[in-house]
Design a protein that fits this description.
The complex is a heterodimer of chains A (about 110) and B (about 130).
Chain A: E1 9-12, E2 18-23, E3 35-40, E4 47-50, E5 64-69, E6 72-77, E7 86-93, E8 99-101, E9 105-109
Parallel strand pairs in A: 1-9
Antiparallel strand pairs in A: 2-6, 3-4, 3-7, 5-6, 7-8, 7-9
Chain B: E1 3-7, E2 11-12, E3 18-25, E4 35-42, E5 46-55, E6 59-63, E7 71-76, E8 81-86, E9 95-102, E10 105-107, E11 112-114, E12 121-122, E13 126-130
Parallel strand pairs in B: 2-13
Antiparallel strand pairs in B: 1-3, 3-8, 4-5, 4-9, 5-6, 7-8, 9-12, 9-13, 10-11
The chains are: A mainly beta (about 110), B mainly beta (about 130).
């Protein structure tokens, strides 16, 4: 199973919005609403930010939102803050009954 | 609050077996809703799900195809923990290894918990280097 495709990096200024894309295929993102997003600051474990495309776990700010269209899922961070600077990874269930992750996107807050 | 505490050696010789343990607090390895996973992360392979163990009236194990011939994940109910054993390691197995919980998803049709396919709690990570 190939990794999901994410842009290597995105950036934005404080207060702005950024969107990170996650492109898969009809065998994963396109067929299942089991897309999740993780935030990983340097040297720490990933943290769940979005599950099932657009659901936020308790404690995650509503500045974080998720969506999906076709084979591409997206994570949008609005009102960007310095503390949002981290690597972000998407993940999807696949038709092989397994999980595949994206290659990760480094978010820089300018 | 669920906490996962990993332990195990940070250096393993090629051809030997990598063994890590994940101790659970705030939940049970025998939970009828959760599943217990191992995931690794390396610069070359990114994040890679390795396998899971979970209990639904009996124990189940699922493994990634990439490591299926070399991996075993075992629950230890007496210590409320689970372990990863990866044999015949090579330098390509050098990575940060994480344990993580899949909290499960209730299936209203069957009345049982299936898998949620996302991870809400993670261990702190263990860097394992494979080198002679």
């Amino acid at each position: 199973q190939s990794a999901l495709t994410q842009p290597p990096s995105v950036s934005g200024s404080p207060g702005q919005s950024v969107t990170i894309s996650c492109t898969g295929t009809s065998s994963d993102v396109g067929s299942y609403n089991r897309v999740s997003w993780y935030q990983q600051p340097p040297g720490t474990a990933p943290k769940l930010m979005i599950y099932e495309v657009s659901n936020r776990p308790s404690g995650v700010p509503d500045r974080f939102s998720g969506s999906k269209s076709g084979n591409t899922a997206s994570l949008t961070i609005s009102g960007l803050r310095a503390e949002d600077e981290a690597d972000y990874y998407c993940s999807s269930y696949t038709s092989s009954s397994t999980l595949v992750f994206g290659g990760g996107t480094k978010l820089t807050v300018l | 609050q669920v906490q996962l505490q990993q332990s195990g050696p940070g250096l393993v010789k090629p051809s030997q077996t990598l063994s890590l343990t994940c101790a659970i607090s705030g939940d049970s390895v025998s939970s009828n809703s959760a599943a217990w996973n191992w995931i690794r992360q390396s610069p070359s392979r990114g994040l890679e799900w390795l396998g899971r163990t979970y209990y639904r009236s009996k124990w189940y194990n699922h493994y990634a195809v990439s490591v299926k011939s070399r991996i075993t994940i075992n629950p230890d109910t007496s210590k409320n923990q689970f372990s990863l054993h990866l044999n015949s390691v090579t330098p390509e197995d050098t990575a940060v290894y994480y344990c993580a919980r899949d909290r499960g998803e209730y299936d209203i049709l069957t009345g049982y918990y299936g898998l949620a396919y996302y991870f809400d709690y993670w261990g702190q990570g263990t860097l394992v280097s494979v080198s002679s």
